[in-house]
Amino acid sequence: MGGPLCHVKPSTGRTRRECCRRIVKRLLLAATIVIALASISLLIGVGDLSLQALFSPQEGQYATQVLLISRIPRTLALILAGTAMAVAGTIMQMLTRNRFVEPSTAGTVESASLGLLIVTLFAPEAPVIVKMLVAGGFALAGTALFLRILKLVPLRSVLTVPLVGIMLGGVIGAITTFFAYRFDLLQSLNAWTTGDFSGVLRGRYELLWIAFALTLLAYLAADRLTLAGMGRDFATNLGLRYRSVVSFGLIIVAMVTATIVVTVGMLPFLGLIVPNVVSLMMGDNMRRSLPWVALLGAGLVLACDIIGRVAYYPYEIPIGTIMGIIGSGLFLFLLLKGRERLA
Amino acid sequence: MIEISNVSKSYGDTIVVREVSLQIPRRGVTSIIGPNGAGKSTLLSMISRLAPMTAGTVKVDGLDVTRTPSDVLAKRLSILRQDNRVGSRLTVRDLVEFGRYPYSKGRLTPEDRAQADKAIRFLDLQAYSDRFLDELSGGQRQRAYVAMVLCQDTDYVLFDEPLNNLDMKHAVGMMKLLRQAADTLGKTIVLVLHDINFASCYSDYIVAMRDGAVVRHGPPDVIMTSEAIRDVYDMDVEIQEIQGRRISIYYT
Ligand SMILES: Nc1ncnc2c1ncn2[C@@H]1O[C@H](COP(=O)(O)OP(=O)(O)O)[C@@H](O)[C@H]1O
Ligand SMILES: [Mg+2]
Fold first, then answer.
1. pTM to 2 decimals?
2. What is the ipTM for the molecules in this complex?
């Protein structure tokens, strides 16, 4: 708890206010880095877009168009999706009390894709918000099934939890692939399951603001989610309605996942890496850690996207691939470094 | 007062608590003793609405624990269970401050902070207040949990084996602290203890359980007899009066 973001260290002889100021300062620094990454992201790409072009009379209009229709939407989409996915991963790890769980290791993503496939088959003309809600419903049901199975599995070790999730995701994914194959929708399915921001244009990403709003909502409930993360008995003792808080958290995770699957496609590893790094750095008190989770999520996605765009210029490596490489590297590092705690 | 009437608990066909009726008066220290598997933890969980009961009712100050909203109860009764595994990386101070959650709902007032400071001091945790729970020894962590529960500042406080993992000095310190909370703050403390000598020295009342039932209950000098202890534990012990206290010699 503490003040909104404060972590006081009386042992160092600083007052609460001094500490708050230091923490705000660090957050501002991190935010500045994210803004810098965002600016770089705005300026690179195949279409020529330099600051001079933007302000030159001949090319200015074209450059402004590129900026408004493609670049700004893409950068915003990266930030919104990165933030939301990292926060969703944090919530899942708190609620399952397991550091290896995130939407793609709990059947959530696969369920969302299945829902999206079904609504695409039966109501191809439905507005995208309806598709998102259907996908969200499936994601929620899939995650609930995951939790139900966990209760039935005896001898839960830290690793069986994500293994169960990955197996469940495998089964649901196989069903989805089967029907996608039968109905010639494999290409769409591929777009949902692998994140790609190259197609983001104005009018095709705005749904991500919903994910952002859900993220804010999670922040408002940060204390309750942290308490729920302490386990049912602690939470109940402190008067928390444990089940409603868990349901609330899962609805947020499901809807965020659905939004991302519908708009830009799944971002692997993000919900796993970011929460773990932040937890190691500053613990699990979500009131304090969530701003960092959000900034780190946005920063990591922006950085991966920039690397993907410049590494093979003018070709673009999909962000999912870059995230896979960087993510697995970071994850290995975390596994080795935080071994005692994770195992 | 805690009124326990005809409370039972069964898992399938096995009855682990059978028709327990008991009244625990306000103010003072009540200890529950009994062999492993006697149902002590189960009883405590049912009193504190952490586990549902199969039959019976529990009332705390007239409030039925299964019907009273959890947040109302959280201001009257708190519990620390036997095995606690908070997986989250919280600092000791975070944890203790969460003890104020029933009142503050996350917005800590200066009084809430003062209360947390006091609890940290009482449990001798000042040096560790900014450490993460997973960076503490078992005994330090146990003290942090106790500090959180004390910070919750409820009239009724239930502890399941609070001396777990504590060294001699901290065990005695803990018992003195609980005794003091009962005497000066008027708290009602209910605890499960394994060391019957601690129960003898610090309780006003002892409840002895065996096979899911209460077999004996009464003040320490009634329970601390060779005969009563044999009934509870199936073990012959010698009880001596040392400095006015009844102490059992059971080590050899
Ligand atoms: N979830 C459970 N399912 C089946 N039996 C249980 C369960 N929990 C506890 N028990 C049984 O209930 C009995 C009482 O347990 P408990 O209340 O923990 O004993 P105590 O705290 O007195 O040592 C034990 O025999 C234990 O095996
Ligand atoms: Mg027990």
1. 0.89
2. 0.91
